[in-house]
Amino acid sequence: MTTAIAHDAQAGPSVGAPGAPATAGRRILGVLLHDRAALFSAGFLALVLLMALCAPVISALTGHGPTAFDTAAIDVDAGGLPKGSLGGISADHLLGVEPLNGRDILARIAYGARVSFLIAASATVLTTLLGVVFGMLAGFYGGWVDQVVSRVMDFLMAFPALIFMIAILSSLPSGNRSLLLVVVISVFGWPYLARVVRGQTLTLVNRDFVEAARASGASTAALVFKEILPNLRSSLIVMTTLAVPGYIGTEAGLSFLGVGVSPPTPSWGQMIAGSVSWYAVDPMYFAIPGLFLFLTVLSLTVLGDRIRAATDAGEAA
Amino acid sequence: MARYLAGRIAGLVLILFTVCLFTYLIFFKLSPDPALLICGKTCTPERVTEIRTVLGIDKPFLTQFWDFLSGLIAGRDYGSGANSVHCPAPCLGYSFQTSQSVWEMVVDRLPVSATVAIGAAVLWLLAGITAGLLSAVKEGTWWDRSVMNLALGGASIPNYVLALALQYVLVVKLRILPFPSSVTFTDDPVLWFQSYLMPWIVLATGYACLYARLTRANVIDTLAENFMRTARSKGLSPVLTMRRHALRPALTPVTTIFGMDFAALLGGALITETVFGLDGVGKMAADSIAKNDQPVIMAVTLLAAFFVVVGNVLVDLLYTGLDPRVRIR
Fold first, then answer.
1. For B309, which residue in chain A has the nearest alpha carbon?
2. Is the pLDDT of residue A73 over 70?
3. Same domain, B133 and B83
4. Where among B87, B116, B141 does a domain terminate?
5. CATH number for the domain whose boundaries are A107-316
6. Interchain contact, B297 vs A167, CB within 8 Å
7. Quick one: pLDDT at residue B324?
8. Partner A contacted by B149 (CB < 8 A)
């Protein structure tokens, strides 16, 4: 089958990544290894992931939990500002403390990273699943199925998603906020992926190798999973890597507006929201979570962009 | 053409109706009782029932929804007798928390949102398209690489982070600008400009970066087309080939996306307006969500959906004018 796809891809330039999976993956990896920006991004992401995974270890080492108050690090006479310069950065608190209650920023960043990554990763999995299923349904069956799915997608994309997300989240009881965030982000996120999947499936269905498989008696499941899905792989990888930073940003944005993860669970957006009333006197409290958020989104975007460039180059070759 | 338009408008009405229905349904099912909120501290069960009757939320869902729809077209009255409240058409609802018809509230705040959106749009189109064009012409040079890397960076800054950082540097540290306030142009042109400058920059940054990348990709694709080769080989100067042959096909997709982005912004730049404290539709939405003022949240959701859907239709119509290859039958 692999050879058939490869031949076909040489004939038609537009869709699908040709070649055996191993070589395509290895080629992209090779390109990324020679790209300094991609390497830096991967390094930074690895660091943040490590921080997220080892958050309890970090807390144990420094002796500061993410919600533990440390009034000794706070200058009550100065209105609750951290003692010392740069927002109270010291050997004890490596990234300083929050004003007023003295919570350790390093611990909160590490625990906040857990929340951000968990939500972004789950939302990505769910949107990809929904996007692929509905996109392929619409593209494969066409007709009224396509009509229904396409109208639902139009409707969801016309919806003012941000306002609506905030409205729903604010009116729902604050039970499991993380789960709610994932569901809400995914419900409004899948059409963007499904649109691409649908378009590609539409062209793939009529390609010769699919026709050949159909003529030789392949079942619908075999057509979908063995013929069409493997050809969507490269666009899926690109779309999802570019979607993750978007979801991290959305989660932080919703938490920033006060409808995301509820305190005392730390989240980066929430930390930035908390720093709004302090940024003039304690800029570090704002700068540290802001910088972490910015660099994480940037790293993911750069990686996604480089992967796309490498895949495009592979398709053109 | 007429048939096409009729079809599009029917689709538009259908989508808006569905948005209406879903928003109404969700608030009907989920929200805490607005009557309790209005009633306040000195509340009795009789008073709550009374308010519920005035609001019309004691009726079944479909009746309520019908009242809302007919209010949109014909206006409606809340309650009866001496203390009834009239809400003239188009009645998007009545906010008992602010004692104002929602339509009035929206109309009051729309100019601020429009100012934010238009100013930002001018900025991001100028910056994004110029940068993208130059990058495409100089493809592969250090200029191209640095602009594209800068664009990746700019698109990655969450706008509230950029907003706070700008405010810290420009207002608190350097004292170049005052804290933004919603002054009108006629009151004080200088203060008006200074107030809106930061919101414009903040909103424009993300879009400008996307547009630069989009423009670059489209121009590079167009430059590789056969008609461009013909134009070059018949001896036209590079500037002329660019202006006469490349720009139109390359920028048509940008127009499409611009229409949708701009329409979405008219429905309120929620985060930017909130961070800078500008009294636009976006800040109104955020405030009413915090106060759980349902009629206002509904209205803003509808308004934003309206702008997006109408924007989509307008863009498609514009497309036929811009791109002669697209014809509507």
1. A158
2. no
3. no
4. B87
5. 1.10.3720.10
6. yes
7. 67
8. yes
**Nearest chain A CA: its distance from B299 CA (Å):** 11
CB-based contact (8 Å) between B296 and chain A?
Answer: no
Q: B155 vs A276: CB contact, 8 Å cut-off? A: no
Distance (Å, whole) CA A272 – CA A259: 14
Alpha carbon distance B90, B76 (integer Å): 9
Contact A158 B305 (CB under 8 A): yes
Q: Are residues B256 and B291 in the same domain?
A: yes
Residue B234 confidence (pLDDT) above 80: yes
CA angle B266, B267, B270 (to 5 degrees): 105
B273 contacts on A by Cβ (under 8 Å): none
Task: Quote ipTM for the complex.
Answer: 0.79
Helices A143-158, B2-30: inter-axial angle, 10-degree rounding: 70
Residues B40, B176 within the same domain = no
Please report, for chain A, the start and end positions of each structural domain, with discontinuous segments joined by +: 107-316
Domain residue limits at B25: 2-87
Residue in chain A nearest B156 by alpha carbon:
A298
Tokens of B207: 């879009």
Q: Domain tally for chain B?
A: 2
Question: Which among B18, B32, B301 has CB closest to A160?
Answer: B301
pLDDT for A262 beyond 50? yes
pLDDT digits (tens, 9 = 90+) for A129-163: 999 999 888 888 878 888 888 888 877 877 777 77
CB spacing of B274 vs A257 below 8 angstroms = yes
pTM of the predicted model as reported, rounded to 2 decimal places: 0.81
- Residue B92 in any domain: the answer is no
Average pLDDT, chain B: 81
Instruction: Tell me the CATH number at B152.
Output: 1.10.3720.10
User: Residue B143 forms beta bridges with which residues?
Assistant: none
What percent of chain A is predicted at pLDDT more than 90? 5
Q: Is A53 exposed, middle or buried (0-12, 13-18, 19+ CB in 10 A)?
A: middle
